[in-house]
Amino acid sequence: MVSFEQLCELCEKLEATSSRLMLARLVADFLRQCSPEEVEASVRLILGKPIPAGYLRALEVSYSTILSVVLRLTSSTKQEFAKIYNKYGDLGSAVKELFEKKPPPKQVLLVEQPLTILEVHRQLMAMADAVGPGSRLRKERILAGLLTRSTPLMAKYLVKAIGGEMRHGVREGVLEEAIAKAFATSPELVRRAHMLSGDIAKVARIARERGEAGLKKMGPTVFSPLRPMLAEAANSVDDALTTHGGKTLLEYKLDGARVQIHVKNGVVRVFSRHMKDVTESLPEVVEMVRNNLRAKEAILEGEVVGVSRDGKLLPFQYLMRRFRRVQDIEAVAKQIPVKLFLFDLLYVDGESLIDQPLTERRKRLEEVAGNLSIIKQIAASSSDEASKFFEEAVSEGHEGLVAKQPTSPYTPGIRGKKWLKIKKTPETLDLVIIAAEYGHGYRHKWLSDYYLAARDSETGGFVQVGKTFTGLTDEEIEEMTKRLLELEVSRRGRVVFVQPKVVVEVAFAEIQKSPHYKGGYALRFARITRIRDDKEPEEADTIERVREIFEKQCGRSKESSST
Ligand code: ATP
């Protein structure tokens, strides 16, 4: 049995290593000594995603829950913790130091058994399974039980795995290489199995258990969500036509939420863009699919959009309320009805369609959809046709268009040029809130001024690029205040520093060079245009992207000054 402490020692080594090759080698050596079950659990813990995507429940342990358990066990105050936290800017490292200074009292057990990887993983699954009344208390008990059996180093990585913030540089790409190295197979095969199954931990286990033959057999599996294929941005329909070789398929870009729908023998489950189970939030979608689909088994993709009483499609914000308030879903469903528009079919009755061209997938989708709505699509081969369709989309209130290459296969998890999005709105950035300030006047009770940060892809940290107090409604500010207080790590005067978890889409007038911010750039007149609950902080825009926009902007102003 491999102990959890061994896994933590590995993570420490990873943290001190920067070479990708070395990272993969260290992980490979570790995985080789594990049983198949341990391989799967280790990969989940190393990634900081202990609960498999597609599992019915999420871990749902808030930062404030972790903090309250840690403070109670070490008899510390919030202030003591904040002082240490500010030294590292990292929850796990701060917990380690606190545990070294004030170790929690040990449990008296008849036989002192070290925590194994499997036990830690089992307990985290039990935390996810704790739902309903008293669930917070149950989660706290499990966490406290684990922490009292932990050394400071183990506490560090336990907290990191729960918070999903490993910061040791090993992500899915390095893991693919490590798995190939550990079990003597090719990285391409591992990558493909990962792409098709969407679950790198399962891939690792199959590689360990069944080798190459097992990996070759992996494909889309009903109830195991695949990572969605994503679109790159294009400047215009003409650019999209050129990129797609003169002919492209155009669809409206609906302003809703992406869903992947899995169906098997009358059971329907719906997954979000992040492979989170959102079935309970969308009962009428489930009903519609169950009653209309002409197939026993299928994996479908589409966009769910909120509709008003008079049948108009509503902007994204309305829809997001459906995903947040699961408790009283029936009441909310009445208030915010939704409509489903399908646009892809990845699997049907035992057959994977992933490698088929889009035109074939669309044909098969039309065959099985019955009365379900499919998104309107036109084939365009001239600039006029494409521009007319774009104008039509915009005048109907949609975000713009998605242009799809007719011959393209479905490539899960890949953002490429096979799908291009052309939007009507000017450029926006998806940024992370890292702190917030209490407002003035009637907003004095609310955190209404937000510090916005871009991702630093090298360190995995976040660098501030601006501040804003505009864009959100009072109701949204009130809700945001509650969320941010749950993520609070420290305070200075009226400013509350938070865990970087909330992603917002931000519009701005321009980007300037700035000596005030570490990243060197600042947004002018930033305004939040939406809360991106469908995005993870790792998907926020990077500081490199901010620089790119700045440079593009400089190019534009040079062009306009020379004409
Ligand atoms: P954005 O911030 O522009 O929504 P994103 O990062 O969420 O981008 P992209 O892959 O860049 O996702 O853009 C495609 C998204 O647009 C899809 O994830 C989906 O939610 C949405 N969408 C709307 N209409 C379509 C369509 N017809 N085909 C594919 N995706 C569509």
Any overview of this molecule?
- The protein has helices at 4-15, 20-32, 36-47, 63-74, 78-88, 91-101, 117-129, 135-148, 152-163, 172-182, 187-197, 200-217, 237-243, 283-292, 316-324, 329-335, 358-368, 383-395, 474-486, 543-562, and strands spanning 230-233, 248-253, 257-264, 267-271, 297-306, 338-348, 351-352, 377-380, 400-404, 415-423, 429-438, 447-455, 462-468, 488-492, 495-498, 503-507, 510-513, 521-524, 527-531.
- It is built from 20 helices and 19 strands.
- α1 crosses α9 (152-163) and α2 (20-32) packs across α10 (172-182).
- The protein has 3 domains: 49-163, Orthogonal Bundle (DNA ligase i, domain 1); 230-423, D-amino Acid Aminotransferase, Chain A, domain 1 (2-Layer Sandwich); 428-559, Beta Barrel (OB fold (Dihydrolipoamide Acetyltransferase, E2P)), CATH 2.40.50.
- β6 (338-348) and β7 (351-352) form a beta hairpin.
- It binds adenosine-5'-triphosphate (ATP).
- Residues 228, 230-231, 251, 253-254, 258, 273, 303, 343, 375, 402, 421 line the site of adenosine-5'-triphosphate.
Bound compounds: adenosine-5'-triphosphate
Radius of gyration, CA atoms, in whole angstroms: 24 Å
Low-confidence stretches at least 5 residues in length (pLDDT < 50)?
558-563
Taken together, the total number of domains comes to: 3
Oligomer classification: single chain
- The rough form would be described as globular
Strand tally is 19
- Please give the count of helices: 20
Amino-to-carboxy terminus distance: 72 Å
Strand content: 15-25%
Q: What structural category do the secondary elements indicate?
A: alpha+beta
> What's the story with the biggest beta sheet?
7 strands, antiparallel
CATH class group of the largest domain:
Alpha Beta
Q: Helicity, in percent?
A: 40-55%
Q: CATH homologous superfamily of the largest domain?
A: DNA ligase/mRNA capping enzyme
CATH architectural arrangement of the largest domain: 2-Layer Sandwich
Instruction: Compute the average pLDDT.
Output: 91
Could you please say which CATH topology of the largest domain applies here?
Answer: D-amino Acid Aminotransferase, Chain A, domain 1
